[in-house]
Amino acid sequence: MLLSKEDVLHVANLARLSVEPSELQEIQDTLSRVLEYIDLLNELDTEQVVPTSQVVEQHTVWRSDQVEKSLPIALAIQNGPQVVTGMFVVPKILDGGGQ
Amino acid sequence: MSESYEVVIGLEVHVELKTASKLFCGCTNLFGQEPNTHTCPVCLGMPGALPVLNQQAVALATRAALALSCDVHPFSKFDRKQYFYPDLPKAYQISQYDQPLATEGHVTIRGEFGMRSIGIERIHLEEDAGKLNHIGQRLGDATGSLVDLNRAGVPLIEIVSRPDMHSPEEARLYLTELRTVLSYLDISDLRMEEGSMRCDANISLRPSSYTGSLVDLPRVEIKNVNSFRNVQRGIEHEIVRQKALLEQGIRVVKETRGFDDAAGTTYSQRSKEAANDYRYFPEPDLPPLILDTEWLEAQKREMPDLPEALRHSLTTEGLVSRDVEVLVQDRALYGFWREVVAIFPDVKLVTNWLLSDYSRHMNAQGLSFDTPGVSAEHLAQLLGLIQDGTLSGKMAKEVLEAMFTTKESPEAVVQRLGLSQITDQEAIRVIVAEVITANPGVVADFQGGKDKALAFLVGQVMKATKGQAKPNLVNSLLREAIASHV
Amino acid sequence: MASLTWDAVEMVRRVQSGEVSALELVDAALERIADVDANIGAFLYVDDNGARDAASRIDSDLTREQKERLPLAGIPVAIKDNLVTREMPTTAGSKILEGFRSPYNATVVERLLAAGAIPVGKVNLDEFAMGSSTEHSAYQVTRNPWDPTRVPGGSSGGSAAAVAAGMVPLALGSDTGGSIRTPASYCGVVGMKPTYGRVSRYGLIAFASSLDQVGPFARTVRDAVLLLHVITGKDPHDATSVDVMPTQATVAAVEPSRMRIGLPEEYFGDGIDPKVRTRVDGALETLRGLGATLVPISLPHTRYAIATYYLIANAEASSNLSRYDGVRYGFREAAPDLIQMYANTRSLGFGREVRRRILLGTHALSAGYYDAYYLKAQKVRTLIRRDFEQAFSQVDLIVTPTVPDLPFKFGEREVDPLQMYLTDIFTVTTNLAGLPGLSQPIGLTDGLPVGLQWIAPALQEERILGMAQALESVLPVPSWPMQGGSSQ
Predict the structure, then answer these.
(1) Which of C386, C273, C311 is nearest to A40 (CA)?
(2) Residue C23 sits in which domain range?
(3) Which of C236, C332, C385 sits opposite A81 (nearest CB)?
């Protein structure tokens, strides 16, 4: 197994997904199998290869510092699952959180 | 147990840039508006929305980097820093990770130790998060939080120092000088209380016997302290706390701590050992930034004289170093000084009045030099009245005080209060003649060689003029009149 | 009387000349949808009233001259449901966006509207475009119009099926690793993924930002050119967008006899269904007949493409899908505290395949694994790009089968996700290299369509379109599935 159950739970926590005990085995198996397949890439020596993160050849694309109209508040918050006084409500924050 | 410790401090300063619009969208960059009224699909993190970089933000960040003597990199790129928090709409912050805008700068601090250079490791551009308002008194017992995204996407620069500071005082000096330099660029409001300038401090104690790498020392980060004074207090407390732990043989835990203003102490917020894994990776939605020399030169041309140059020129103009520092550290004060000097070029007189009486009234009225209580023109006029003898120093103080209250010109105050020194010789001669006629005995005493008798006569003239005559003038006119009286 | 057997170019001509009204066309499309879509399941939402109103406005408010300035005057169009629309709901096929109403239109939608097109509805997809079969929508499956027991391909299965079944002449899809070309092949229609950057992604719900691209579905090549010309071009809201697409004139100027066409050996090896192979060989013969020169070439890193693709696409997806956190929009599962709210919302809101990919992508970016997975994949991506650069120094175009096999049955590739991933083996490379790719139908085998894929250097779409049009003109006129509906 390329991925332990602890790995799965760690990654799930990073991604803010919960994993039910009943599905843990299946997830571990599937992801491990995909990672085993991905191991194929290790056939290649890429030591000297520059990574590609974008395929567009352009650079320094920017806009001038012009103010544009914001959304009307009604549209900005219309999809909010819970909204009070124009703000989105979230439940109690337990740890310090943030960055 | 005679281990001694070296204090090692590094500071991370976030500065909001004063652009018209946000970093990646056209929403207004304005502080203190109704919640969520300055939001759009981009800064709300709506499905499908994409960021487009604000050129002016790059310009302002570049000027900051140049002013702090950094190497501005011709190539830099943006990355995503990922963590979940309700004030971060996309659950990632667009920032710069391994190829920031600028690196390797410095800030020079001055103190009793002389001058020291504090290194700047890097400056990068990133977007600000929104604001949470907790329902309840504190985060700890809040029942929930309200999310306002007006601030989300506001452009920030993060200035990361090297761990070059070794005392709370040095940290304060670094922050002060940093703010001074940035203030001349006019790229930010730099208001700690409004969050347009924020500071996190990293503190570790290095035992004298420690030979390992600085990076491996357990480091405590104090987050989001709201004033320079509190940064200093937080560091002071942290030094005491860490020293106490080390002396008891207890390991210092690498963690994030908050600062309790009332208690003057730091408290644990969250252990960094269970820290976030930010999973940085290159932002695919933004092509890299390539800044050519021509563009960099254009930014240099936009830059004003910086504190170092100003210190030099003020010293050359004859100011003492204490006054130079006071002037340079407040850009608005310096600007006002320049305005007054331009009208009234007696540098010393201007400086003396500005830094003493004028500043005292400003403080008393709680004003900053962005909104001077008395205009440069009026102050220059007042100094002119002193110089031509119309007002004595004492009278001028009185006039200035009135000017701060009524906003009148000095002439108007002088006239209203009937305060000017009588310099009209004819007017004084008339009074002198009257005094001589009224005091023949005293005049005779003076003529008989009693010099003190003249002082009495001067006093009588002054009394008759309600103190508005110039004593020297009265003195000479009396002598003249008595001589011719014979 | 409007006929849905006309292609879009013909429809536009008739609307502009006043031979048919836009409302007649839209009514015909809506009727056809009502007739056949119960058996297909292409549409997630049909905007009958909105479409009729828009059509009536074109008919009553515009002069003939004004209509002639609208390149898509009155044309009913279906929009993949990962393109945000103000007037219709947008779900991306996910429960997590149930009830979501976008406050803005995607740039491509704005361009359609400005061109006089009539969006009639939103069409189905694999959740967040993650899949090759359109089985993974949270709302419904879409069936292949040629055989309802088989998948239409994915993820733009709704777009492909709607066009193939004659419900609309044109549809928009998106392609991250083959999501336009695979369903185009399986449903027997023309589908193109343009060069990365050619079409604005603003308002396309991101799956993998460095790979995603919006593109057209049509029944003829000239219709694809028509739609492409409308949707392409630089967009101030998308920093990665580039130039506009060439017009029909430049496409028509392509001379088949001057084209050198590369046949990559890696795409013609074992693992191709022999029936597919036979059809493709036939098409190659036809190309030779047109005077094109066919040259064997090699793209040696092809075998690493799927692994590379799944690392990059899922890493980016794990980041792009983080914003679905139950705070500002979409589904939320209540919980006493924030962390639990996040976990409950995301675990119940996302389907199984999406969660699987988020986990894989998160792992690939996490501390200690970044270099081994994500960075490694980015480097192999460079090698794959170089393969194409090398190849295009020898040839003008590359041609391959679009998919190695015929449309598969529902559930057939559910057991093993790797099997599903390998469906995209011939299509992912163009996304990794940012190149344009097109699938065109080249005939039926056992009553099921086979597609041929064209690949060109970046921004050389006209070569592809010119050759595809030349080939189309000499192939037998295709028949279409589900004939005999009330509108036909």
Answers:
(1) C311
(2) 8-245
(3) C332
